[in-house]
Structures are given as C-alpha cells and as structure tokens.
Design goal:
Layout (H helix, E strand, L loop, with lengths): L5 E7 L7 H18 L9 E6 L2 E6 L9 E9 H4 L8 H9 L11 E4 L4 E9 L4 H14 L7 E4 L6 E4 L3 E8 L2 E2 L4 E2 L2 E2 L3 E2 L11 E2 L6 H7 L7 H19 L4 E2 L3 H8 L6 E6 L9 H12 L2 E4 L5 E9 L7 H25 L15 E3 L3 E2 H26 L12 H15 L7 H5 L6 H9 L4 H9 L14 H20 L13 H14 L6 H11 L7 H22 L4 H9 L7 H12 L4 H18 L14 H22 L3 H8 L3 H10 L7 H18 L10
Helix pairs in contact: 1-4, 6-7, 8-9, 10-11, 10-15, 10-17, 11-14, 11-15, 13-14, 14-15, 15-16, 15-18, 16-18, 17-18, 18-19, 19-20, 20-23, 21-24, 21-25, 22-23, 22-24, 22-25
Length: 722
C-alpha cells in the first residue's frame, strides 16, 4: 500500500512580489524539515514548493500517518542519590520517575552506567511516534513563524475580536493527506479544508474543491487558470517573451533582466505576453532613461534591436487573456506614454543648463555630516585625481612611452591633467539634475550624456559616465585613463574619508559599500596594470581632507590592511591558494604585476627545490628579524667556512641572472633560476654558525643572508609557501 502525499496551502491576499519566491521556498522547506524531524516522512519523500501572487503551498510525498515509536534513554541521577543502602528508591528518584510517567516499581528496570566518576541511573522507555495531525500542526506553526517576512501586517479575524500577524491577510487553509482533510489543523484563525480559489477573473470554477494532494496543481491550472509553480510560471513567461520578440521580427529581443523576470512572475497567475509600442519621437531621449522607467515603474520588457539599441516596441506580461487584446495593449500604451513624456521633459530641461553651471549647487547637497557637502567632496576628488594623474603619467612615460602620444597636437600630460580635472569637477553635477532626481540609478550615465551635449571631449564624457564603475562584481571597468583616474579618486576619497572618521564596515553592515569600493580599486589597479604605489596614493588622498581626519596615518594603515584582505579574497576567487596570494601580497609587488607574480610563484612551487628553499627563506627571515638592521654587503675575505664560500660563489653566479630576468619582467624565470641555490643553502645551514661570537664574522654572515633574502623575495615572500 502506497503512503499518501501531503498538501498544505495558505490562500492569502496579494503577496509582496519581490520576496514571493523566497517566501514560497521557505514555507515549503521548513514544513518538510519539521515533518522529517518528527519522523513523519519517508526516505524517499520529496518536496515541491508552490508560490503564486495569492498562495503559498507545499506538496510532500510519502508522509506517514504516524511516526514510528522511538526508544528513549533518560539520565536520572547518581545511584548514591537515587537509592538508599537497601537499594530502595529515594524520594527524589520517585519524584523524578513520576514526572516521567513511571511508577516506583520501575526502579528494578533502571540501568546503572559508570561515567568515570560515579554510577548513574538511566531510565529506558518507548516514546509513542507523533500522530500526523499533531505533527502537521507543529510543522505548520513553525513554517509560518519562520517565514522571512519583510514587514508584518496585523489584521482582525472574522470574529471581530481576535487579530493575528502575517505578511498579508490569509483567507483559506488547505491540508490534505491523500484525499483526507486534516480537519483539526488550523492556522491564522483558519480551519483546514479542501477549498481554494483560482484566478480572480478567468477561473472556470470558483471556489475549487481540491480532490486530493496530487491533483492540486492540475486542478488549479485547468479549473482555476493558475500556474501554481513559480519556476514553471517563470519559464512560461521567458518562453512567451522570446516567442513574442520573434513575431515582431527584425532580430529584436527582449531585454534580459533576471530580477525583473522574477518580479513579474510574482505578479501574475497565468501570464500572457503582448506586444505594445510608443511613439518613435521618444527615442531621442537616452535609451537608459526609457528602459529604466519602463522596467522600474511599469514592469515592461523593452525590445532591443540586433545592435542593442532600444526600439519603440515593448512587451507587457498581462495577467488576463481577453479575446480582444487591444484593450490590454492600448491601456498599457496609454499608461507608459506620460512616463516617457516625463523623461523627455526632464532631458530637455536639463540640457538647457551646462554641467559647469551646476557646480555651485553641489555645495548645497550634504554628503556626510562629518565630511561636508558634495561640493567639498568634489574638491577632494579633484586633488586626489590630480595626484594620481601625475603619478600615472610619470610611470607610463618611464615604462611605456609609446602609450602616451599626443591628442590633437596637445602635450599628452597637459591633456591628461586637464581632462582629469574637468571630469573630476563635473562628475557629480548630474546629482542636481531633474532626471537623476527622478531616477537616481542614472547618476553618471546622464552626466555622460550632458557632458557630450555641452561639447566636452569624448574622454571627459566617458570619465563622468564611468567614474562609478565597477558598480558590482563582474561590471566593466572605465574605458580610458581619464575615467580610470577619476574612478580611483572617487573610490579612494570614500574609503580614506570613511576610515578616517571611523565608519568601518562590520560583519553584516557596510552602508557606504566600502568593500565594493575596495574591490573596485583592486580590479582597476590589477586589470588595467596600473604602475601606481597605493600607499603613496592613500597619503595624497588623506592630505586632501586637511584637518578633517584626526589620525590619517593610523586610519590609512587600517585601510591598507583592509584592501589587502580584500585583495587576498579576490585572488582566491581567481583560483590562487591562500599561500600563493599571501606570498605575492607580502612582497609588495606592483599591482599591475600581481598576475605575473602569481603565475611565477605557482610555477616555482611545483619545483622539487621549492619546499626546501621556502623553509630556508623562512629561517633566514627569522634570523634577520632578531638581528635587527643588517648591512647586506659581504666581505669575501671573511668567508672562512667552505659552506659559506660555496654559497657566496653560487650567489655570484645565480643572483645576477635572476635579477636580469626580473628586470625583463620574466618573474617565472627569475624564481626558477634561484632554485639552483637549494644545495648550497642547505649545506650552509648544516655547517655554518651564523651568530658567531666574533662580531665582524657574525655581521658578515648576516650580510650574506640579507643579500640572499633580498634576491629571493623580489617576486614574492617565499617563506609564505613554507
């Protein structure tokens, strides 16, 4: 005989769409876990979660009518406390047994167990397995209590007196074990039954009497016009979106937005995708504005051309399927038109004023009560950007002069500095425009458009748009050097300022997104291979704050450690081990060289000589640390022992070659060349006393180790591999 399946459904008023899937999954999972904990599920039991705008439900297979009885062992008390000299039960033991539902005669069945200190009395009994009705009630109560409800409602029940708290008012409870209704189960003032409701407008039967747990989804689909499964409904919407775009033709496609797809799935019970359109004149507005207003305000899917440009058509996911779809399409077209008109109005009005004319308005926008206004922040970003630009130009001019060239006959350095300063000054001015005031998500993007409208260079416009990048993990980086410099300055201003006033992120709170800013700095320095000294830049950033930061040296040290921690995590995500990452970070390799250094360390670690050299390097580091300041120069005439003479000779042959390869950027070859030192290093430590009593001899040997330590740790701190 097969074990019946269980269905539990809560029928409610429209649930919050952005958390519907999470609510549905949590409801089903907790219900299942609680039934399993009570022994009411089978090894083959499976769970299916259902979540639609007006219901949370779970279908669980093979749910037992009663759990199996369980053997229970209860620790009572020491024998010396529970039994007298004649072996009779003490009053304390009798009281304990009675509390467990046992008679005094059960003393004879008690087991004595020695715990290493004393004999302990144990009472063994059999606990009756949980009944299904009781178990479902407990599981349902727990599932409701543990729902991740963003905001609880308090509402009155039908008796006019009682009230309950829940995410939305609940109006129905279905609890079916096979075909049997578990009538005694209740929740939120509702008694269990088998009655639910389908689509508000398109159900062919209402109310719907669910025949059995296994017919639930089919009955809702066929009689109630509801696709109860969230994933199934989501897949159907995605299928219809693709089909509708193909019907339009011309290679158009619906914009991809997973969050929007989830939200729309939570808004409809049976989706019907329709094609709508708006006047082409609105396409003169930047497409980001139109796309945002259609997605955020109306939950529409804009259609993009094969080249990725916005078209004048869009898709709407309707919850109804009328015979004449024009009523739905026409209504949505009328609704979106004022939204697009607003966007066009904001865009037209904003272009009447230049970004430069808006700079003074930044002094009226508060940034932080301890760090001043956006105007003051802008001046700090300008100063930081200027310092970065100088360092970047000098480094590029030295290492890669071919990258500089000239722009329209101007000297590249002057052009870079002027463009960086202009972009840094204007980067935040779109915050005081009408468009960004209405759509904050467009900050930076609109600044780029308005900069182009003002006739500013492409590099400046791109920098204004790009200075927020990367906004999230995997986001693209700024396109040109000007944008990279301003983006770095913007993020470093935030990091240095917030650390300077003590606004550090905690384990679960990071309101100023400092972790994201740090990762953005890391990605730009590494991926753009920027030859910049981060410590020097942080010092320049701190100077831009003047007297606002009480102890900038201390806070910058904290910040540098914070960035290095983020760097270590970032490198581990790229597939490098913690030891490899630590070795490179500890060596202070230039940021742009980190990937190359990591590859060299990985190749070195695979050599048979690597473990011994790493261990020797660690030993050398410990010796030098105790010695204090050590002069790396060596007097060959004072090398007395054959082992130290052999090491010096090997270094004279090996180190210059390793240094040459390092200078050429061949980090892997540099480390592999040093592998030849393994044997003389091992012999040195076997035969030579470094800390000799004679001071001159001791200092000379320490100098030999110091020069070896420098040579071995140019690419990475090899001791971290030990």
């Amino acid at each position: 005989m097969t074990t019946p399946n269980l269905l539990v459904e809560l029928f409610v008023e429209e649930l919050p769409p952005k958390v519907l899937q999470k609510l549905g999954d949590a409801f089903a999972v907790v219900l299942f876990e609680q039934l399993k904990a009570q022994g009411l599920t089978s090894p083959g039991s499976r769970i299916t979660a259902y979540a639609s705008p007006r219901r949370l439900a779970a279908h669980i297979t093979e749910v037992l009518p009663q759990a199996a009885d369980k053997a229970v062992s209860q620790k009572l008390m020491p024998v010396s406390v529970g039994l007298d000299a004649e072996g009779k039960a003490s009053p304390a033991l009798v009281k304990k047994l009675n509390a467990l539902g046992a008679e005094e005669s059960a003393v004879a069945t008690l087991e004595r167990v020695n715990d290493g200190k004393a004999d302990i009395l144990y009472y063994h009994s059999t606990a009756k397995g949980a009944q299904l009705t009781e178990g479902v009630q407990n599981a349902l109560d727990e599932a409701i209590a543990r729902l991740p409800i963003p905001k609880v409602m308090r509402y009155q029940l039908q008796d006019g007196w009682s009230s309950v708290n829940f995410v939305r008012p609940a109006h129905g409870l279905v609890v079916l074990h096979g075909t049997e209704v578990l009538l005694s189960v209740s929740a939120l003032g509702l008694k269990a039954g088998n009655i639910t409701h389908g689509h508000r407008f398109e159900a062919s039967v209402d109310p719907i009497g669910i025949t059995s747990a296994d017919t639930y989804a089919a009955q809702l689909r066929e009689q109630g016009a509801v696709i109860a499964s969230f994933p199934e409904r989501r897949d159907e919407i995605a299928r219809q979106l693709k089909a509708a775009a193909e019907r339009v033709g011309g290679g158009v496609r619906a914009i991809e937005d997973e969050a929007l797809l989830d939200e729309v799935t939570a808004l409809v019970e049976r989706p019907n995708v329709l094609v709508c359109e708006f006047e082409k004149e609105f396409l003169d507005v930047p497409q980001e504005c139109l796309i945002l207003t259609m997605k955020a305000n109306q939950k529409y899917f804009p259609l993009l051309s094969a080249e990725g440009r916005l078209t004048h058509q869009f898709l709407v996911v309707s919850n109804i399927s009328p015979s004449d779809a024009s009523a739905v399409t026409g209504g949505n077209e009328r609704v979106v038109r004022p939204r697009l008109a607003d966007a066009k109005f904001f865009f037209d009005q904003d272009r009447k004023k230049t970004l430069l004319s808006r700079v003074d308005a930044l002094s009226k926008v508060v940034y932080h009560n301890k760090l001043g206004t956006q105007g003051e922040r802008m001046q700090r970003v300008r100063a930081i950007a200027k310092a970065i630009a100088h360092d970047l130009f000098d480094a590029i001019a030295k290492a890669h002069p071919e990258q500089l060239g000239s722009v329209e006959g101007e000297i590249a350095e002057e052009y870079l500095l002027e463009s960086v300063d202009t972009a840094a000054m204007l980067a935040k001015t779109d915050l005081v425009t009408d468009m960004v005031g209405e759509f904050p998500e467009l900050q930076g993007i609109m600044g780029g458009y308005y900069a182009a409208n003002d006739g500013l260079s492409v590099q400046v416009a791109h920098a204004i748009e790009d200075h927020y990048k990367p906004r999230f993990a995997g986001d693209e980086l700024p396109r040109e050097n000007v944008g990279v410099v301003v983006a770095l300055a913007d993020k470093l201003e935030t990091l240095v300022g917030m650390f300077g006033i003590g606004n550090l992120p905690t384990g679960d709170r990071d309101p100023f997104a400092l972790r994201r800013h740090a990762l953005g700095v890391i990605r730009m320095l590494i991926d753009k291979e920027l030859p910049l000294d981060l410590t020097r830049i942080l010092d320049a950033a701190a100077k831009a704050f003047g007297a606002l930061l009480p102890d900038a040296q201390k806070s910058n040290a904290q910040l540098l450690e914070f960035i290095h921690e983020r760097l270590a995590g970032y490198l581990r995500e790229q597939g490098y081990s913690a030891q490899e990452a630590d070795a490179v970070i500890a060596a202070n390799v230039p940021w742009g060289e980190i990937p190359k250094a990591l590859q060299a360390v990985r190749a070195f670690a695979e050599l048979p000589e690597a473990p011994a050299l790493a261990a020797a390097n660690k030993r050398i580091g410990n010796i030098l640390k105790k010695a204090g300041q050590v002069d790396p120069h060596v007097n060959p005439a004072m090398l007395r022992e054959p082992a130290e003479q052999a090491l010096y000779a090997a270094m004279q042959q090996t180190v210059p070659e390793a240094d040459a390869r390092f200078a050429e950027g061949d980090y892997t070859g540099s480390l592999q060349t040093l592998a030849a030192l393994r044997a003389p290093v091992d012999t040195f430590f076997d035969d030579v006393m470094v800390n000799a009593d004679e001071e001159a001899l001791r200092l000379n040997r320490q100098g030999l180790l110091q020069s070896l330590h420098v040579a071995m740790n140019r690419v990475a701190d090899l001791s971290r591999l030990a």
